[in-house]
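Subject: Predicted fold for Nudix hydrolase domain-containing protein, 200 residues

User T.R. writes:
Posting the sequence so we have a shared reference for the thread.
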Amino acid sequence: MDGIWRELAPALVPLAEPPQPPGWNHVQMSELLGSVERRPAAVLVGVREGVDPRVVLTVRTAHLASHAGQVAFPGGGSDPEDRDVIATALRESREEIGLDPGHVSPLGFLDMFETISGYCVTPVVARIAEQAVLAPAPDEVAEVFEVPLSFFLEPANLRRYTMEYRGHRRPMVEFVHGGHRIWGATAAMLLNLLQRMGRA
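User M.O. replies:
I've generated the structure tokens; pasting them so everyone works from the same file.
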């Protein structure tokens, strides 16, 4: 699977040139949110090393105020103490899934994405060591699971549909794997990854 890593790295925004707002979906979000300032956030699009590299995802707990029960990348809002978006993604990943930053090698970024909850998210793509141990924080994460990157690269696994939201028809994408429905912002970021790799 070395070929996947060779294909992935040049498709990303370089670490030395982090993306800047607005997000790639800014026009669409402006129809829903107006000009309200977006809060900075970051997520870790972590790919675990191995024979079949796997994307690490979480299921949010059912009691959370927002996005309860949804599949998400580990991540969250930036803190003033965070040096940069990579620091945010690593801090949140340690808090949510117990990921040791020493087992993470950032590779680059995807394009910024604006969420309906008012965040402008920077997706940090990184390699996760095969031996990394993950343990969900029960107050935030109900489950940690992994999906082969090759699954997302298969065009037949990308589903497109339209959703009505606040009077607007929004084009959406989703993936279904192992009983998990991956949709919303998480699926949109994965679509951005596929587009940057020339796979969608």
